[in-house]
Every structure is written in structure tokens, then in C-alpha cells.
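User: Design a sequence. Structure:
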């Protein structure tokens, strides 16, 4: 049987990252209306604009991935998750290192709200390397840490994880066919890499097990963002 997400076309599982100010975000949203299904709002835009930015994007017809990466005591994260889905978020994130009880508290808050929002765990930030991971007191290798935290998130009942395309195949195997695996670090063929180094093309990311991909600058900084989105959709 197909996992629930697999019945949705790949182009509707491309999430456009709005890492910009309000006006630029709204201009982009209008250009991508009717094309892109998902927008990602991160801390920068959310801390400036608050829940209103989520509500506006919802009114424009988008699903919203609210990537605020919660990490606090369970009581606080429960409240944060409730507030996020109340604002209309369709997907939220938290750090798996916050622990299983913290992730369970978030999941319970989402369930109790009646929202169908998906919950994702951040395992190890891709900005970290073996050295910076060791400095946090983690002695096992990176891949083992990612795997263990992903399993914790599954035990807590979350919908899935955020991961680099390089980890997607391993995580698909560990978490099974139904888990969501959302991968940033995606670049269409021939695109500028920006500050991303270990990248995959959109098609490669899906083929290696991603359920959703996040793409920012190749679309948001294109002269014609709608055409850039269409080109990516065609590649899939
Ligand atoms: O512009 P670009 O396509 O690089 O944007 C990718 C988005 O995914 C950004 O919002 C970035 O913060 C986010 N992200 C990432 N790498 C991670 C986690 C999130 O690039 N490991």
C-alpha cells in the first residue's frame, strides 16, 4: 500500500522556504499562488511577524510549514505546539534532543487541538560536524546519533524528521514507508549552490526517500520565481 503522502504529486510536496522580510514573502507568495502548495516560515520571518504571517499565507491558499525548532521543557513545548497549530501551521518542528517526553507533549497538544498538522523532529543540525557534535558531549558517530534520535521521534509518535538528502535513504530504511522525511539542501541541476555544500537535485532527493523537499533561494531569488518553480516541477 502507498503511504498517504505518496498519493500526492511530487510537485505538491515541494516546500518553498520564505527566508525574507514580510513584503518580499508576500510578493513571492502571490507569484507562486496556484503553483506551489507549501511555504516554509522560519524563525526570522515568524519572530518579526508572528502568527499573522501564517494566517495570511493560509488565506492565500498555501499549506504552511512552520519551522520554529522547539526545544524546551515539555510543558512549554506543548504550549508552543498548540499555539503553532492554532495559527494554522500544517507542519511543525522540534529538536529530538529535547527528549521523548518533550516530543510526546508536543504530539499530544497537536492531537488534542484536533489539528491534522504533521510533527517533525530535527536530529542533528546539518551545520554540525563530528567535532562540534563531540563538543556537545555526544561520543557516538554522527550517523548513529541521527539514527537514534530519529527512532526516539518515532517512539514519541511524531510524523517524521527533517534530514539532509544524504541521510534520506538510511532514514527511510530505519523509519519505514509511512514516515515523513523532509529534506532541505536541494538544488536543481545547474543552480547556484549558495552556502549549501552537500546537495542533491530535487529528483534525487525524492528518489532517495524524501517525502517532501525544501527549496529556498533557487526559487525565491530567481528573476521569475514562478518559472523557476515550474522548471523544478518538470524535473520531478
Ligand atoms: O535557500 P535554500 O534552498 O538553501 O534554503 C533551504 C532552507 O532550508 C532554509 O530555510 C534553511 O534554513 C533550511 N535548512 C537547511 N538545512 C538544514 C535545515 C534547514 O538549509 N539542515
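Assistant: Done.
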Amino acid at each position: 500500500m502507498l503511504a498517504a503522502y505518496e498519493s500526492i504529486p511530487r510537485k505538491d510536496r515541494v516546500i518553498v522556504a520564505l527566508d525574507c522580510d514580510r513584503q518580499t514573502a508576500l510578493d513571492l507568495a502571490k507569484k507562486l499562488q496556484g503553483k506551489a502548495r507549501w511555504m516554509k516560515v522560519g524563525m526570522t520571518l515568524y519572530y518579526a511577524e508572528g502568527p499573522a504571517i501564517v494566517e495570511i499565507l493560509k488565506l492565500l491558499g498555501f499549506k504552511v510549514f512552520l519551522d520554529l525548532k522547539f526545544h524546551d521543557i515539555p510543558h512549554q513545548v506543548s504550549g508552543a505546539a498548540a499555539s503553532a497549530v492554532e495559527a494554522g501551521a500544517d507542519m511543525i518542528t522540534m529538536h529530538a534532543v529535547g527528549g521523548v517526553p518533550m516530543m510526546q507533549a508536543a504530539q499530544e497538544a497537536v492531537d488534542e487541538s484536533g489539528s491534522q498538522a504533521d510533527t517533525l523532529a530535527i536530529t542533528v543540525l546539518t551545520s554540525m560536524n563530528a567535532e562540534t557534535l563531540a563538543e556537545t558531549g555526544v561520543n557516538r558517530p554522527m550517523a548513529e546519533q541521527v539514527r537514534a534520535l530519529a527512532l526516539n521521534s518515532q517512539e514519541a509518535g511524531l510524523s517524521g524528521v527533517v534530514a539532509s538528502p544524504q541521510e534520506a535513504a538510511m532514514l527511510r530504511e530505519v523509519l519505514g514507508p509511512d514516515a515523513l522525511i523532509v529534506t532541505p539542501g536541494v538544488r536543481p541541476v545547474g543552480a547556484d549552490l549558495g552556502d549549501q555544500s552537500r546537495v542533491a537535485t530535487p529528483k534525487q532527493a525524492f528518489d532517495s526517500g524524501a517525502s517532501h523537499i525544501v527549496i529556498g533561494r533557487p526559487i525565491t531569488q530567481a528573476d521569475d520565481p514562478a518559472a523557476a518553480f515550474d522548471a523544478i516541477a518538470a524535473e520531478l
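Strands lie at 14-17, 38-42, 63-70, 91-95, 118-122, 160-162, 180-183, 212-215. The first helix runs from residue 22 to 32.
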